[in-house]
Amino acid sequence: NTIYLCDYTPPAYLVEKVDLTFHLSPEKTRVISRIAFKPNPASQSGDFFLHGEDLTLLRASIDGQPVTPDVTDQGLTCAVPDAPFVWEAEVHINPAANTALEGLYMSNGMYCTQCEAEGFRKITYYPDRPDVMAPFTVRINGPHPVLLSNGNPAGAGDGWAEWHDPWPKPAYLFALVAGDLVAHPDTFTTRSGRHVDLNIWVRPGDEDKCAFGMEALKASMTWDEQVYGREYDLDVFNIVAVDDFNMGAMENKGLNVFNSSCVLASPETSTDMNFERIEAIIAHEYFHNWTGNRITCRDWFQLCLKEGLTVFRDSQFTADMRSAPVKRISDVIALRGRQFREDNGPLAHPVRPASFVEINNFYTATIYEKGAELIGMLKRLVGDDAYDRALDLYFDRHDGDAATIEDWLTVFQDATGRDLTQFKRWYEQAGTPRLSVTEEFADGTYTLTFEQHTPATPGQPDKGPQVIPIAVGLLNPNGDEVVPTTVLEMTEAKQGFTFDGLTARPIPSILRDFSAPVIVQRDTTNAERAFLLAHDTDPFKKWEAGRDLARDVLIRMVRDGAAPDDGYLSAMHAMLRDDTADPAFRALALGLPSQDDIAQTLYDTGTTPDPQAIWDAGQTLRQALAQQMQDTLPRLYAQHQVTDLYRPDAAQSGNRALANAALSLLTRLDGGAQAQRQYDAADNMTQQLAAWGCLLQAGKGDQATAAFYDQWRHDRLVIDKWFSLQVVHADPSQAVETCAALTDHPDFNWKNPNRFRATLGALAMSPAAFHRADGAGYALLADWLIRLDPLNPQTTARMCSAFETWSRHDTTRQAHARAALKRILATQGLSRDTTEMVGRILG
Ligand code: ARG
Ligand code: ZN
């Protein structure tokens, strides 16, 4: 069942226009399609095939004459004229029974759709592939006050509404929403004067959580005009919040559908991090209007064409709206946490995969986040002006196209004259390159020699050298920068770069701004790391120096039983007391590398990681930090309290982040007294949740846990946090039991993906608990994945990646994990999604 990129063939028929009529009914929705087809001159084949799944075909006709197609569970074939013709069909579908949340389904009584990647085929028979684009007219009949589809309104009356989308689009961008919804309205005028009606549609009761999302939308629209010269192209832009949703959000043309957790926000119910994420996702989906919709993908292998570019654009937007260094550091933390982990395990795949079984399994950190890093490298290599020119050419040349990575790279070649043949390897080779560095200094000349090596990944034993932009700066031993940031362009497997005219041996600052998604391996000392933490002018490297220090300290604690390193403790203390540094930066710098990062580093250096020992070392180190800083913490905590009216902006968020980081350490000294005071006084979720987390960690959370539930039992998104935090902050020896007990709670609605992820996903994200030596973590997750799979394969398959690091552990843990995975695989009728994931994980 594997699909290969190299097997691509153009569609046999193109669609000139689509008319759809829906008669909504929960168990029997009638869908009437009228589709104008014409043979594709670019195709050899005359075979007429329409995708279709879980459909009941009632009738079909061609040019008005009834036909009897050959129907399978994948779709239908039919004899057709060798000339343009009109296909008509009527099908029944059952939205109420659609628990997979693909196609047309119901959530709390409202109808909604999710068609990317291949959900439209569950709505009607259609060539459900992204290279078939057409204008759509949609008529919805239903008793609901709000009836929405893509494009512009084209008429409405009692029990019906019609929509017309003039922009040709693939079926995956189709959307329909119907329900008892209320709007948070606004307007936007584009720079050429188009008046656009904006709406965020929510269930009654959620109206007060829309204002922030609306501001983010307007900011995104302005930003895309100013930075990319891209204007909106319809008269309306609708966003709908849906409670049951497999992913974050979806960029359907003119009708974005959002997981309610990714759009609804208020200071009382959302944390600063929630606000920032919502702003970014609104921007991301809006930016897709050009990078995804106006220019779409030829086939699903090209997914990174729209996702990598759109993630890159939303990161630029966040950097502009907030703090660029903080955004860059946060992105690197996320990349290492999710994408490096993926790239170093059995699920590693290229940014543009060459094959897949189920495309839904490829909405991954590699395609999204590494895909965005490739755009960043390209921009760094060609320069900002050339990047702008290339993007203008891309929009010019490919507007209305279903494009490929080759098209994208050709645009850059044509705009800049640069040969990108070698750069393309970044799209084709999986795995994280290791970049080792040696240095020499003699007679004022300093030489940095780099060697690159990418480990084997599934199906790719050998890799060629890649183009690596290495941003480097050099510092003098007195802390002055002697060579400002310079981008070295590495193309060989081994390559040296020299710097002349130096008076002393410099301290190098390598891979500034994280200029390439690689792992730098260099022998260095903790004294040098502390020096860079104090003096580097590049904020990312400054942060990275602290991170490297902490990693080294933790590794020695876990591996050699060393004590917390004094050099590290005093370097951190100095960093924290530097009031000239951004509080948000200091909060980030105080964080420790993830447990997974430590495990991977140990594994890479020949030590089998013990998740419990890694957790213990983290606890010991945090305790030592708290002790070291005991005089500073109360002052720091007080100094960064925000007294102004709550605003989720970068400045206030940074202060709260630093105060809460201080509170967490303080709790290790005062047993939770300050945390309890903060919990009792909190008037925003950032403060409340941080305080409750501290209390849970200190084992003093019971009272707050009960109070939190009583206060928020009516708010499903806050109750997701209630489920999640209890697992996250449980002692690893108890987290499995805590998680299992929560699955017995009356509010544990396991059919809701948000609630399922909040509970079981939280376990999967707690390494010491999930990888418990007796296998209880694996067994609990496997039980629930087996239960969820028949209802919702997509969410089940995604959560299987919790197991992706299984084979780096000891043989006892490996045996437990293998048994759990095999038990999943042996389940009768297991979905294609989950079968592919477990199969790949087992290797
Ligand atoms: N295109 C969406 C986004 O990144 C994600 C939708 C993915 N959906 C899915 N079923 N795989 O904004
Ligand atoms: Zn996207």
Automatic annotation (TrEMBL):
It comes from Lacimonas salitolerans. Residues 212-426 form the Peptidase M1 membrane alanine aminopeptidase domain. It comes from the Bacteria. One of its GO terms (molecular function) is alanyl aminopeptidase activity. Residues 88-173 form the Aminopeptidase N-like N-terminal domain. Residues 431-522 form the Peptidase M1 alanyl aminopeptidase Ig-like fold domain. This is Aminopeptidase N. InterPro entries: Aminopeptidase_N-like_N (IPR045357), Aminopeptidase_N-like_N_sf (IPR042097), PepN_Ig-like_sf (IPR038438), Peptidase_M1 (IPR001930), Peptidase_M1_dom (IPR014782), Peptidase_M1_pepN (IPR012779), Peptidase_M1_pepN_C (IPR024601), Peptidase_M1_pepN_C_sf (IPR037144).
